[in-house]
């Protein structure tokens, strides 16, 4: 990702009304380190719930899969530590699998391969580095049935109809009998959700403010992060969790030689994290053109791994 792209997106977003920054830019080295802290917060239930499903419901998931072998294609694979539980279960059930992790970062794919190979030394692993919007076509040459994984509730980062558009996009690279396996955060009590996105220790606040600090470092910005506050909201009807940074005072900020004006209490929209009901997922599956779905939840019904069959 070039500095120019980063700069253009930041300036464009700050000149919008309302102002908006893009969550994909959260994850510089500092942001990634803070996010690892978020993943360990007791209030941030998502990783624990998803891991529980992958550990304890994997046999149920595999029982639906009729073929002897599959390519396991993972979008935004990260370090693969959670996925390894599912891969181990597939190997135990004598499925002939090849693991194809896709991620924009070659470095994290090297970590992924090391973690998975430590658990499954004989597994064939074929990492593909790059933006999966561009690299997905590389999987179409193989004629093996596929299970495409999109875990970690990453689908929640797509606003409104964009989630459906994304699933339809992925479907373009699938054939009849393939599966799309989706990790989804479910609607639940609003206070449970808000605690995960506005924790008492202020870690999520630091995560959001770090993007302003990154702008300062990389784009000669002069944000004073003490003059901004973090605010999270959740709408239990729509399921939209949103985070904002709020300007405490009227102020001017310089970014890449551009002056950005803020009024007192003006918001910057930072991120959306969409929550779904199982009924919502049934509707998405039908609208996307998959023939069936199966939902596997944790014991609290906080999270679902949903399997869509083409």
Automatic annotation (TrEMBL):
Residues 6-309 form the Histidine-specific methyltransferase SAM-dependent domain. CDD domains: AdoMet_MTases. The keyword Methyltransferase applies. One of its GO terms (biological process) is methylation. Keywords: Methyltransferase, Transferase. SUPFAM superfamilies: S-adenosyl-L-methionine-dependent methyltransferases. InterPro entries: EgtD, EgtD_Methyltrsf_superfamily, MeTrfase_dom, MeTrfase_EgtD-like, SAM-dependent_MTases_sf. GO terms for molecular function: methyltransferase activity. PANTHER family: ERGOTHIONEINE BIOSYNTHESIS PROTEIN 1 (PTHR43397). This is Dimethylhistidine N-methyltransferase. It comes from Cyclobacterium lianum.
